[in-house]
Amino acid sequence: MRRAILLSTCLAALGLLVPAGRAADRLVPSQYPTILDALNNAQTGDRIVISGQVVLDQQVVVAINDLTITSGNPRADIRRTRFLVTASGVTFQDVDINGKSPAGARSPDARSLVTFTSTASNGTLIGCKIVNPASGTGTGVENSSDDVLGPGACVNVQAEGALSVRNCNFANDMDADVNNEVGILLGPGAGNPSVGPVLIEGCTFRAVERNVSIVAPWSNITIRNCGFSLSNQGAIGQAPADVYVNTDWADQTFEGAVNNLLIEGNVLGGVESPQGSRYSYPVATLSTLNNCILRNNHLTTSNNNIGVYWRGRGNGLVIENNRVDVRGTANETSYGSLYLRCAGSTANNFVFGDPRLRMKNVIVRGNVFTNPTGTGELAAITLRDWYENTVIEDNVIRNYLLNGIYMFEAPNGHVIRNNYFQNVGTVRGGVNAAIAGALQDGAAIGNTIVGCQVGIRLFTSSGVNGTAPSPPFLDRRPKNNVIARNAILGCVSTGILDQSGEVDGTDTQGTYLQRSFGNRYVNNTITNPGAEGMALRGDQHWVYNNIFFGGTAAVRDNRTTGANTSFAAIGFNAVYATNYVGIAPPATDIQLPNSPFVGGNNPTTRAGVTPKADAPVLSAGTGDGLSPDYITDIGAIQLGAVTDTSVPAAGWALYR
Fold first, then answer.
1. CA end-to-end span of the chain, whole Å?
2. What are residue 8's phi and psi, to 5 degrees?
3. Is the separation of the CB atoms in 486 and 495 below 8 Å?
4. Do 329 and 299 form a contact (C-beta atoms < 8 A)?
5. Residue 376's pLDDT is what?
6. Which of 7, 141, 265, 398 is deepest in the core (most CB within 10 A)?
7. Which helix (H) or strand (E) holds 383?
């Protein structure tokens, strides 16, 4: 009896005898010669412990719940073996899975190295290196089911339950003959849309085409603290992305929303971003998306790149506290570091004007956009069709080739406030501006613009990307905007420039209005522009409580072919070392005898244009009993006889 007990103890220590109900380690190759042999003997809760290099060159089905596949000593190096997981609770931990043979040849048919099927919920990968799947179908360029659903994937997830991927390495070899390769594919499973949650954290990625590809309506996805780099191997015209979201493929009727997506703390783009003439995107979306956040990421882009290519529609997008660095040479075909527009698809027969083609409740806040070479991108932020009521605030934009914020289409109602712009548009000159576009029913408030080509430029909308919605959009004027409290310092050209069309235009949508109307310019400070402080066109504008300091004109009538610029009201501006051109100087203006600023004659900061304590532009007050009709957070506005010379300037609260 004593010998029997001792023998049992020894066998148990070797993992050869397992009491019923207890998990066991199945050792490969010391105990079981192959992974298949170990799986054939495994039970729920067991571990498959693999030591050294193993080559199976076939698919392995993992159908045991709560199983762990892990490494012994030395670390597992699994070659040309692909796993099909059909069970729940399966974990891959600290193993290397490589689609190449020991001699370095990729498997021709190992398209997905690890696949979680629709029954394989609650999968986990931790500390693994999974690299070099076979090429996928198609090229990865076309928006088709083959390209979207058939890539070569390190991990292909079709499950509908939770997934956790932590501290893994998906940095594939950059083999020249590989096409349509991804790191993690979140694809469609059987039945209902996948709900997650999905956590991808602390991983490194480098794929030929896409690193994380979401092509089904997953929800509750977090991509956090990962390092991404885009390859430079694909053919010209391909569109790789670090994070790619597309649930609407051109040859499918499939449609669904991606909900609750958080992309946080990642480095996207990386040092291997393409340097040739091809597009690549750290983040690209072409779907319906709700409640998405991009926060605290560092995005790097190079020639022809877009940092965030958000063509999604839906509700709730926050892009905040990211750093976006532009690299590469000048190229005018890229729309900007952050490119926001809606897009339809033949899959769901959306056309422009469809009420579902909207992106609502968008905030772009606290980001830093830099282009240290002054070349490479059209704009830091581009807003196109069907983005409405977007708030862009507290961003820093420096050294962009053409424009800082560029808005193509109206209606929009964007609010652009408290941003800082420096040296934007100076490389290319012309009319490139810190803020440029077809702003309508919106606001540009409290921005600081230093040393840019033009401060703020308004022009006529192209009319919802020049297409023909039903009904057509025919009022394309920059109208009913509030341009207030901006400090526009030392522009190379004009401080505020209106270049809207002066007569009605006609295109495929019909005859449209384009002459600007009813914009309010209040409490702006414009110092030392190379041309005018304001060059305005259109009708019924309001120009109040501004300081014009230097330049060829305080305000100039910028008309060319249309009628004269007209004003609902103009006056009570402070003017120093400049005058009006084409407009009679308002009798209620203050003519300053010298600089009113603490920064002297050449202020270069917002603090520098703080009025001196005795400056006549500072809180003139209403002590004489004359009060304006409205005192607002953007100044005092008198709606009555504003040109009445009996009303002294002291009756206005300037710079409240």
1. 98
2. -60, -40
3. no
4. no
5. 53
6. 398
7. strand 379-383
Separation between Cα atoms, residue 603 and residue 190, nearest integer Å: 64
Beta bridge partners of 554: none
**DSSP state string for 155-208:** EEE--SS-EEEES-EEE----TT--SEEEEEE---SSSPP---EEEES-EEEES
Burial readout 242-264 (b: 16 or more C-beta within 10 A, e: otherwise): bbbbbbbbeebebbbbbbbbbbb
Query: 643 is written with which tokens?
Result: 């040109």
pLDDT band at 16 (very low <50, low <70, confident <90, very high): very low
Instruction: Band the pLDDT of 610: cuts 50, 70, 90.
Output: confident
Structure tokens at 169: 């390495």
Burial class of 12 by CB neighbour count within 10 A (0 to 12, 13 to 18, 19+):
middle
Residue with tokens 């571990």: 47
**Residues listed for the chain:** 656
* Owner of token pair 């783009």: 269
Residue 296 CB-half CA count within 13 A: 7
Secondary structure of residue 352 in the 3-state scheme: coil
Calpha distance 625→377 (Å, rounded): 54
Question: Higher pLDDT residue, 622 or 368?
Answer: 368
Strand 630-632 versus strand 635-637 pairing type: antiparallel
Helices and strands in the chain, H and E counts? 3, 59
Q: Which residues of 310-331 are buried (b: 16+ CB within 10 A; e: fewer)?
A: bbbbbbbbbbbbbbbbbbbeeb
In angstroms, what CA-CA distances link 144 with 75, 111, 283? 39, 18, 19
For residue 309, which of 243, 250, 356 has the smallest C-alpha distance? Answer: 243
Q: What is the pLDDT of residues 475-530, one digit of tens each?
A: 999 999 999 889 999 999 999 999 999 999 888 778 999 999 999 998 899 999 99
Q: Are 160 and 192 in contact (CB under 8 A)?
A: yes
> Whose CA is closest to 575, among 561, 602, 596?
596
- Give the predicted TM-score (pTM) of the model: 0.89
Q: If we measure between CA atoms, which residue out of 389, 448, 386 comes closest to residue 415?
A: 389
3-state per-residue secondary structure call for 590-652? EECCCCCECCCCCCCCCHHHCECCCCCCCCCCCCCCCCCCEEECCEEECCCCCCCCCCCHHHC
According to DSSP, the β-strands at 574-576 and 590-591 are parallel
Mean of all residue pLDDT scores within the chain? 82
Please tell me the predicted confidence (pLDDT) of residue 597: 86
Q: Alpha carbon 33 to chain centroid distance?
A: 50
CB 86 within 8 A of CB 109: no
User: Which amino acid would we find at residue 392?
Assistant: I
Q: Measuring CA to CA, how many Å separate 545 from each of 439, 443, 525, 526, 611? A: 22, 17, 9, 12, 13
The secondary structure of 451-514, three-state, reads: CCCEEEEECCCCCCCCCCCCCCCCECCCECCEEECCEEECCCCCCEEECCCCCCEEECCEEEEC
d(CA 606, CA 268): 33
Spell out the residues 6+ positions from residue 338 whose beta carbon is closer than 8 angstroms to its own. Answer: 306, 307, 308, 310, 319, 324, 364, 367, 369, 380, 381, 382
pLDDT reported for residue 361: 92
Judged by average pLDDT, the poorest of 194-203, 269-278, 601-610 is 269-278
